[in-house]
Fold:
Amino acid sequence: PCPTKLDWRIIFRNPSQPLVVDIGSGNGLFSLRMAQIYEHLNFLGLEINSKLVVHSLACAQELRLMNVHFVSTNATTSFHSIISSYPGALYLVSIQCPNPDFVDPEHRWRMVQRSLVEAIIELICKEGK
Structure:
């Protein structure tokens, strides 16, 4: 289970920087690379697979990145409760693979649901993407 309130001061060197959230961050490579390039932004990967989160966190630590973090959670249901406590602006939300199980229609589950979209709209800054 994911804590809905994170201590942003411990997670990020500068928690007032604009935040980029990658929903369904998978192996974390996108967020890790972006964190290296865009040091003026913070990156948060939300991933339901805890093994991938452990791997991503280890990579961030190995690279000594203080502007990227990963959380194991179901972003569809926890996005608002996690992101609403962030002290900086929510600048960008990325969803690169919204339907990860596309092979078997009976087991298909969709990340992009109305409640998630409404939470993003409510929390994203005016200049956000």
